[in-house]
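#struct-pred

JT: dropping the chains for the assembly here, can someone run the whole complex?
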Amino acid sequence: MRRKNRNRIPSKIILAVMVLVCIILLFTSYVVNFTSGPIHTIANYLFVPMQKGIDYVGNTLFLNSEESKTKEELLAENEELRIKVNELTDQVNNMELSQNELEQLQQLYKLDQLYGNYEKTGARIIAKNTSNWFNSFTINKGSSDGIEVDMNVIAGSGLVGIVTDVGTHYSIVRAIIDDTSSVSSLITSTNDNCIVSGSLKDMTNDNMILLSNLEDANDAVKAGDSVVTSNISDKYLPGLLIGYVTSVSDDDNHLTKSGKITPVVDFKHLQDVLVITTKKETGDVGVETSN
Amino acid sequence: MLEWKPLIKKIVIIALTIIVCYLLQTCIFSHLSLANVTPNLLVIVTSSFGFMRGRKDGMFVGFFCGLLLDLSAGTYFGMYALIFLLIGYLNGLFSKLFYGDDIKLPIVLIAVSDLLYSFVVYIVLFLVKGKFDFLFYLRAVILPEVVYTMLVSIFLYLILYKLNLLIDKEDKRSHSRFV
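RK: done, full complex below.
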């Protein structure tokens, strides 16, 4: 007696139905911008606690001996301090940047403060993305900690990425080095706008991300200039440091330039990040700010 | 009449396998990456259950593995589910050729499945954006991943094979009771 007799529906029909289900999923997620809905609940209660646990065990196993020796309290304290250090480094960085730019930009934009002292919350990376093609990761804070989609994520020295998906106790962050990411940004020395986009190819070859659409008629942009997020970006807050220009070259059209940027964040050894809980305000603000 | 007990046991065993492999892949192997790649354990699971248990089981295992990936990838929800569904089905076509004690066919099938998965991801998410340098992606991502996945699959397959025997035993026991 063969097992197949038990279910009488032929597998080709099941295949067709399942493919249809997938296509409907794809279609609805594309149209309604729904992402995973009810499955979030499963992930919240099933996977995230386990990932947190394994991450804890994994860190004690794989990290340096300093951590494996210390006791639980010390570990907790250590983590707290590390987040604090990140926060402080970021503050110092912001101060430096703002001092350099403040005078000039105050005149130009009549702004009191460019690099706002945004409210941040520390979070820990508990899982990396499952495929080798993309750079996104899961952090251990979600909507119950006040995280929302489109919040910016930074680590000590610069911009890491943006929250793309939020569950109750976890959220997914897409890094700026991801191949699908692009950020509207600004060269601080010349105030030229450009687009910074991630590239799997350049990241694996020489740890760099791409810069494009730079209009720089006077050839003023040179290697070493710092690149920050631009004021005109929809989702990124202005003035977050992305990296430093490594090389610039003319495009084929001789109007714009493109080049490469070395990001300031060490994405390979990223463990703790800070999520900025202030979101960029957009909408009909665009008309009012023009005066 | 459909017996529930072995069916539930089968579902529990397979579900646990998928969950454990997913957690291994996202939490443990990301620490153990070689040449910047991590092995694709879920392809091993989908492919193995596909050729060990046939098209239907392969499809369902693939569908749920894909859903898990969709959950943490967050690009196009449902894309991985579709790819893995097809991988499970295609591997199911080879279930008649499958004999448990031979490890060559499983390894080859797993490698081909992983290649297929990588090609589809490349075409859907990279080629359409005008990234034509296929040789680079082949060398830097696809081939290392396939090789690493094959290495891991030698060990993982043996475990999956034992699990499959366990499921079969439950099935047979319940059948003999009724026949």
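JT: nice. The CA atoms of residues 126 and 132 of chain B lie 8 Å apart. The longest helix of chain B spans residues 134-178.
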